[in-house]
Amino acid sequence: METYLQIENVSKQYGQFTALNNISLAINKGEFVCFLGPSGCGKTTLLRAIAGLDLASSGTIIQDNKETTFLAPEKRDFGIVFQSYALFPNLTVAENIALGLRNQGKDNKTVTDIVNTWLNTIGLPDSGHKYPNQLSGGQQQRIALARALSLSPGLLLLDEPLSALDAKVRSHLREEIRRLQRQLGITTIMVTHDQEEALAMADRIVVMNHGVIEQVGTPQEIYQQPASRFVADFVGSMNFIPASVVSNTQIRVGETLMAKPDDSLARGQRFELGLRPEDLHFLPVGERSDDSFPVQIEDLEFQGTFVRAECKLQGEHNGDAIKVDVPIRELRELSLERGHFHNVNISKKHTHIFQMAQ
User: Fold this and answer.
1) Which ranges carry the ABC transporter domain (predicted)?
2) Out of 4, 25, 79, 182, which residue is the most buried by the measure of CB atoms under 10 Å away?
């Protein structure tokens, strides 16, 4: 695959504060990449460094075989869409899209043709004469997208473009952006703090925290093989169950002895079992196995296709609730109720081991 954007050892300091710490990353041509992480993790700073809106303090950025590290934004080849749409309220929709094209020196007929093409592409063919405040948030965001793409940039940058929209519009626009991106084959970087958005849209996700990259991978890799406790906790729902190694073959979870899930664990070691709620299973009443421990059900939350059971580890009075996702068809067979005790079976194949400070 051809590398389109190469980021090498990029750092960004604001006085004593380090917003980006030695970031290196290669993005392929035509790839859709999401920068994902909590507020203040550096994802927007990295996007702005790529755009030249905030110059890197050190390091190198190469776009399409051309070094752009310290170039002014207008000398770079990108289109950008912000969370706030940033449309000119005094210009019509058509004039908003046409502005950049006119600045490029295109003649009136060409500009009109391109504007009409884009209005059709984003499903708003009859809105060219309207003003931004006559449109919904989702429609305004589509216009902002058309304006960015009408200039045929080599790179599309999206800075939390969906976060100001309500859930249904967001979900629809998410599909729309992905479809357009595939159709155009344009290299795209999107900043988001919404893990669901990143999992649904990205070819690869870059998980960031405190100015460094924690993990880069496909949505499946990030979800199924988190590289750190932070990634496991930030992406999706994860149970962290405290445990300790009591012998060469057994561990203790709560007051229960269980088979050791990993040979590399040494006697006396304290660690956490990381398990997704869908990888824990209730055993039928009265049954137990070497890979199970008892819990008490504290709450049952209906989620449509499954019920999420919030449980307490028997013998533990504090600690986080253990979440177990139960498909509806299983629920009927298990007859779960609040207050009941059940054994929960862990799947060794899907168990992650996170070391605890000794």
Assistant:
1) 5-235
2) 79
Tell me whether strands 250-253 and 239-245 are parallel, antiparallel or unpaired: antiparallel
Residue of higher predicted confidence among 316 and 105: 105
The residue count for the chain: 358
Distance (Å, rounded) from C-alpha 215 to C-alpha 136? Answer: 36
- Roughly how many angstroms between the first and final C-alpha of the chain, as a whole number? 44
Contact 97, 110 (CB under 8 A): no
Residue 41 is classified by DSSP as S
Write down the pTM of the prediction: 0.91
Report DSSP letters for 250-264, one per residue.
EEEETTEEEE-S-TT
**One-letter amino acid of 119:** L
Distance CA 32, CA 158 (A): 11
For residue 293, what are the CA distances in angstroms to 5, 130, 207, 300?
Answer: 49, 63, 33, 19
What does the alpha-carbon distance between residue 32 and residue 206 come to, in Å, rounded to a whole number? 11
Domains of the chain, earliest start first: 3-234 (3.40.50.300), 239-355 (2.40.50.140)
32-49 pLDDT, tens digit per residue, is 999 999 999 999 999 999
Q: Confirm if 253 and 294 have CB atoms less than 8 A apart.
A: no
List all residues 6 or more positions away from 174 whose beta carbon is below 8 Å from its beta carbon. Answer: 162, 197, 200, 201
